[in-house]
Amino acid sequence: MKAINVALLGLGTVGKGVYQTINTHQERLRDITGCSVHVSTFLIEHPEKHATVNGTTVTDIRTITENPDIDIVFEAIVGKEPAFSYLKKCIQAGKHVITANKEMFAVHGKELRELARQHHVSIGYDATTAGGIPIIQMIQHVLQANNVLKVQAILNGTTNYILTEMRDQNAAFEDALQQAQQLGYAEADPTNDVEGFDAFYKLMILSELIYNEQPNWNDVKRIGITSISEKDIAENQLTNKRIKHIASIWKEDGRILAKVEPVSLPRDHPLYAIEGVDNAINIETDILGELTLKGPGAGALPTASAMIEDFCLIYSGKSQKEKSTVVVS
Amino acid sequence: MKAINVALLGLGTVGKGVYQTINTHQERLRDITGCSVHVSTFLIEHPEKHATVNGTTVTDIRTITENPDIDIVFEAIVGKEPAFSYLKKCIQAGKHVITANKEMFAVHGKELRELARQHHVSIGYDATTAGGIPIIQMIQHVLQANNVLKVQAILNGTTNYILTEMRDQNAAFEDALQQAQQLGYAEADPTNDVEGFDAFYKLMILSELIYNEQPNWNDVKRIGITSISEKDIAENQLTNKRIKHIASIWKEDGRILAKVEPVSLPRDHPLYAIEGVDNAINIETDILGELTLKGPGAGALPTASAMIEDFCLIYSGKSQKEKSTVVVS
């Protein structure tokens, strides 16, 4: 049986989730791809820390790009570099790539997609946006005829958790944040989440997917949740509203408009009932109407799920662009 | 430019929605398929009633099966027959088919899928289940690696509307039903909806998609909403619960278990907040966790959306089963 050899860049929470899932789902992946799937190579900064993995550990990306046996590269590194340079080299070496790196992809996604097209390889990035919710594949493959008119979304689980706690437990922002940190939902430096940068990156990725371009970043209002007080929450409660941190994007007069900000939602809003660390996306389209997806916005397994579903679409031939007249579903 | 010629069976609410959408989305369909898309032939019982359509109206299915220029057939007829016989003949004549007919597909879906496989054509049936929500394509293409452990769903908009009205307006079942009928949400004979047959058919279609088989129909508990009283609703209100009509399916000890029945849902249940004529599906999987989709469960355009997205998947080659090593997404 033909084998698909995978290289994994990074072995943090997400990387471990990918490795574990490929191992636990051997049979299923074999059914889908017709091949056996192995993680053969791990690129990690400190190989001595990861004695338990079953494969070659390397520190130099060239070991991967120059190895013709490696078919596909999963990237689960934090931060723009060296992730971007690594993926660029992998694509140039003719390897499919799958990334979970939102900040990097918000900045370099267009270039990487173009590079992948030139090198006839696939690039999967569903894990960059809304964790396990397969929103990228959904818009790309399942909502092709529909024009997306507007997206409103809760794209950051940390801020949604904090806002939920502030309301449910009458907690102050600082206390809710501290609790989120204790539970591992927020980083020691929470700026990226609570100031809305994380949601902003994801929104820019959605913009490029839907409109094939991003708005000028300076034109996008980005307000975090740090200034929301217990009084704000209480006042919203009185009128049966909830403050949610909403990322939205739509087009007006041919121009892309986007913003990330706290919004008071009435009870009948599709994002009103989204609680805790969940993410949700409401898509308004011209044929279907409104569709809302809700699911886990982060975590090792949900993120691994998105990456491995990207993998399955690549190897089951379903992301193939060429038209076929004889098709069986 | 190559043309794709469509035949449309039935020109009721759904048929008209399909016809209208193909006409309004000419440019987009051309971009997706690389072809111009025309509805060239209409099979309708009373052609004299539909003088306004632009194409050939016929009453004999052979006019379609024997016409080599017709590539694909959209079926929007009510009831098992003649829909099943028609689709069978179309598939045997080498034409792709797309259906919105849930009762027919719950009974004959397996046979039609097998027949399509033999004749190397595609069969699209996303419109049979949950209206515009692309649940079939989602499970088929975007959740391939994930094992679906359990599905809980609101699959009938009529009953959900009635239950919502009973609670919100303190209405008796009969009054809420009458209002649903006046608004066109319920048929003159509402049995199919309020006794749970409609939800049951959709659940059986999901069963076959997920487990590749259906449970014995006699083993599936199916309880409608006709016996729910104002007192039941009020008692649930007191404990912050809501009665919803839930279709669920899961496996236990290798056996498929399924039921359709009213359930008291607590506030934190993912289907608690689904109101009015909306449908929603909560899927529990082994990698991702829980994913919920919410959207319009019926209506001309949502149903047309599901059918036309099936069409796009067929003609963009994305439902192709054959493995491809060179793929670009």
Strand order of the largest sheet of chain A: 3-2-1-4-5-6
Q: Please give the CATH architecture of the largest domain in chain A.
A: 2-Layer Sandwich
Oligomer: homodimer
Apparent shape of chain A:
globular
Beta-sheet strand percentage of chain A? 15-25%
Q: What proportion of the residues of chain A is helical, as a percent range?
A: 25-40%
Keywords (chains A, B): Amino-acid biosynthesis, Methionine biosynthesis, NADP, Oxidoreductase, Threonine biosynthesis
Domain Homoserine dehydrogenase catalytic (chains A, B): 134-311
Catalytic activity (chains A, B): L-homoserine + NADP(+) = L-aspartate 4-semialdehyde + NADPH + H(+)
Family (chains A, B): Belongs to the homoserine dehydrogenase family.
Structural commentary:
Chain A folds into 2 domains: 3-131 and 301-315, NAD(P)-binding Rossmann-like Domain (Rossmann fold), CATH 3.40.50; 139-297, Dihydrodipicolinate Reductase, domain 2. Helices cover 38% and strands 22% of the residues of chain A. The first copy, chain A, has helices at 13-24, 26-33, 62-65, 83-92, 102-118, 135-142, 157-168, 173-182, 191-194, 197-211, 230-238, 300-315; strands spanning 3-9, 36-43, 56-58, 72-75, 96-99, 123-124, 148-154, 221-222, 242-252, 255-265, 278-285, 290-296. In chain A, the strands form 2 sheets. Chain A has a 6-stranded parallel β-sheet with strand order 3-2-1-4-5-6, sandwiched between helices. A 6-stranded mixed β-sheet of chain A has the order 8-10-9-7-11-12. In chain A, a hairpin with a 4-residue loop joins strand 11 (278-285) and strand 12. The two termini of chain A are 24 Å apart. Chains A and B meet through helix 2, strand 6, helix 6, strand 12 and helix 12 of A and helix 2, strand 6, helix 6, strand 12 and helix 12 of B. Strand 12 of chain A pairs antiparallel with strand 12 (290-296) of chain B, so a sheet runs across the interface. Chains A, B: It catalyses: L-homoserine + NADP(+) = L-aspartate 4-semialdehyde + NADPH + H(+). Chains A, B: This is Homoserine dehydrogenase. Chains A, B: Residues 134-311 form the Homoserine dehydrogenase catalytic domain.
